[in-house]
From TrEMBL:
The gene is nnrD. In the N-terminal section; belongs to the NnrE/AIBP family. The keyword Zinc does not apply. Bifunctional enzyme that catalyzes the epimerization of the S- and R-forms of NAD(P)HX and the dehydration of the S-form of NAD(P)HX at the expense of ADP, which is converted to AMP. This allows the repair of both epimers of NAD(P)HX, a damaged form of NAD(P)H that is a result of enzymatic or heat-dependent hydration. Catalyzes the epimerization of the S- and R-forms of NAD(P)HX, a damaged form of NAD(P)H that is a result of enzymatic or heat-dependent hydration. This is a prerequisite for the S-specific NAD(P)H-hydrate dehydratase to allow the repair of both epimers of NAD(P)HX. This is Bifunctional NAD(P)H-hydrate repair enzyme. It comes from Oryzomicrobium terrae. Keywords: ATP-binding, Isomerase, Lyase, Metal-binding, Multifunctional enzyme, NAD, NADP, Nucleotide-binding, Potassium.
Length: 543
């Protein structure tokens, strides 16, 4: 029996559009559009800022527009005044969307060809485009999204997006030109990766899922090919497998309370290698994070010969030169915070890559690997079982590693993280808004053989905020990861937990008024400690 508390939120799947299409096809006999429009109307009723004002409903030329027509019909039935704007050609609508439009007209509704300029709205419903959009918004839609945005600001009213905000790519979180920024998004059947990374969180606002009567687990059958749709091998090869929206339940099994009979030797030796001249602060931040997040002993090796011999804030840290650190027995090592890229950095990194310990590579360690094919080969050759590698690039570092530009990384962050994981046989956290995690084939229950040759398991972290966009945050993350590794966490859960914990700590600080403006990396360290202890407490058996 599982004695763990259910208080930690559970795993929630993120489905790519191709899989949602399969799911839709497998449930074609069910009135999905009617349910989507009905669910939208129910939330719309609650969201109206002023019940005396009408609701503006924008209906597009596809099935997202069909959802909008159903929503408008239901709102009218509830005696709510609606203004529907649509230029959809009825002859080109799907059968469902055509029926939804006709039902709206049959019920006495009227369709306007443009957004009225003078009407103050209580709510704007965005049913222009959903998962079918794959290009910049064309006329008149780009003008409509701009007008709707301006009128929502003018009227202080919310914007409810149906399925996804129009113009947001549901798979990648990339915004096409003319995309609409919603305050709320009701997404259908299942949650979608694009709502949680890159531009997604800014455009989607608060996300709710309407499952439309389709069991949350039905995607598993759809992923392996729906009975209603013969899945070709070529299709499968390009099908992004489902991912997860990261939550503490994903790593709860490793949130173990310490035994009473504990001693520091049980909690591991964490090492940080970095701190070149002018950048010793980065290594100290990482060291302090490793110490405070529970490593039994923390060693910081600095390349700067003038580096301090003691950290006055945390004299518990053991400071030494880089070469001395590499000769110290360690349970886990992070290389990169303030490392620099000179010959000494390169030499020490090459030595570190030969150590049979879990190794976190960040910052200049990643830049050196990107620069030198020999180091890259050394990374890829490491044994993911005995000596796992964890990479924590931000988008610019990922671009250097994949020899492309940052925009290409941001255009498809999931693909970038998965490609890095496969190329370097490593666990990867591609940082930024909606950090994407990917794991090497065959690791931690990961499927060894995905048809596209890329690792299967990926996740998006929803915690964190723009207050974290400040120097030193990455160093703190490296320190948290190495602390968990030193305490015996497997690499995949360690990386996921560290990323989620660090973001959640920053969120707690912002909620308490510390930031987002002026939040410092150092402040996230004790906040992460409090949260980690709280999470460990929440997994204790009940009673
Ligand atoms: N999946 C499900 O399970 C369920 C799905 N449901 C709903 O269906 C939605 C998906 O519907 P969908 O496939 O019809 O696509 P949608 O997003 O309405 O847009 C396609 C239309 O837009 C057009 N178009 C595209 N880009 C354009 C542009 N830039 N500028 C101008 N036009 C552009 C495109 O034209 P085309 O590219 O063919 O020329 C086509 O006409 C989904 O998000 C959800 O809301 C629910 O009802 C229930 C369950
Ligand atoms: N807008 C944001 N939303 C969520 N997390 C963010 C955001 N900006 C930065 N972060 C997080 O803060 C950390 C910044 O790391 P990094 O860019 O390496 O900083 P540095 O190199 O300055 O230490 C990463 O964990 C990243 O995911
Ligand atoms: K929409």
């Amino acid at each position: 029996m599982d004695t763990r508390s259910p208080r930690l939120p559970g795993t929630s799947p993120l489905l790519p559009a191709a899989l949602l299409r399969r799911l839709e096809a497998a449930h074609a006999a069910q009135p999905l559009m009617a349910r989507a429009g009905e669910a939208a109307a129910r939330w719309a009723e609650q969201l109206r800022s002023d019940s005396a004002r009408p609701v503006l409903v924008l209906a597009g030329p596809g099935n997202n527009g069909g959802d909008a027509f159903v929503c408008a019909t239901r709102l009218r039935e509830a005696d709510i005044d609606v203004v529907v704007v649509s230029r959809a050609d009825p002859a080109r609508l799907s059968a469902d969307a055509h029926a939804a439009r006709q039902a709206f007209l049959d019920g006495g509704g009227a369709i306007a060809a443009d957004i009225p300029v003078a009407t103050p709205w209580g709510l704007i419903v965005d049913g222009l485009f959903g998962i079918g959009l794959a290009r910049d918004l064309a006329a008149p839609y780009a003008a409509w999204t701009a007008t709707a945005q301006a009128q929502a600001r003018r009227d202080h009213c919310p914007i409810l997006a149906l399925d996804v905000p129009s113009g947001l790519d549901a798979d990648t979180g990339r915004a096409w030109a003319g995309a609409l920024q919603a305050t709320h998004t009701l997404t259908f059947l299942a949650d979608k990766p694009g709502l949680h990374t890159a531009d997604g969180p800014d455009l989607a606002g608060a996300v709710r899922i309407a499952e439309l009567g389709v069991a949350a687990t039905a995607w598993a059958a759809a992923a392996s090919g729906s009975p209603n749709r013969a899945a070709s091998t070529a299709d499968d090869a390009h099908l992004l497998p489902p991912g997860r929206l990261l939550a503490p339940a994903d790593f709860a099994p490793w949130l173990k309370p310490r035994p009473k009979n504990s001693h520091k030797g049980r909690n591991g030796e964490a090492g940080i290698l970095g701190g070149a001249p002018g950048m010793t602060g980065a290594a100290l931040l990482a060291g302090r994070a490793a110490l405070v997040l529970g490593a039994g002993r923390t060693f910081v090796g600095c390349l700067d010969p003038q580096a301090p011999a003691v950290d006055i804030v945390h004299p518990e840290l053991m400071l030494r030169r880089g070469e001395a650190l590499l000769a110290t027995p360690l349970s886990a090592l992070a290389v990169g915070p303030g490392l620099g890229q000179d010959d000494a950095a390169r030499r020490d990194l090459a030595t570190a890559l030969g150590l049979a310990v879990p190794l976190v590579l960040d910052a200049d360690a990643l830049n050196l690997v990107a620069r030198e094919p020999q180091l890259a080969a050394q990374v890829a050759a490491r044994n993911p079982g005995r000596a796992p590698t964890l990479l924590t690039p931000h988008p610019a570092e990922a671009a250097r590693l994949l020899a492309c530009d940052t925009a290409a990384i941001q255009a498809d962050r999931i693909a970038a993280a998965r490609t890095l994981a496969a190329r370097f046989n490593a666990h990867v956290a591609l940082k930024g808004c909606g950090t994407v995690l990917a794991h090497p084939p065959g690791s931690d229950g990961n499927d060894p053989a995905n048809p596209d040759g890329l690792p299967t398991a990926w996740a998006i972290n929803p915690s964190g905020n723009p207050g974290m966009s400040t120097a030193g945050m990455g160093d703190v993350l490296s320190g948290i990861v190495v602390a968990l590794l030193a305490q015996g966490w497997p690499p995949g859960p360690a990386l996921e937990a560290a990323v989620h914990l660090h973001g959640a700590a920053a969120d707690a600080l912002v909620a308490a008024g510390t930031g987002p403006v002026g939040l410092t990396a150092g402040e996230t360290i004790p906040a992460a400690r409090s949260l980690l202890n709280r999470w460990v407490g929440a997994t204790l058996p009940l009673g």
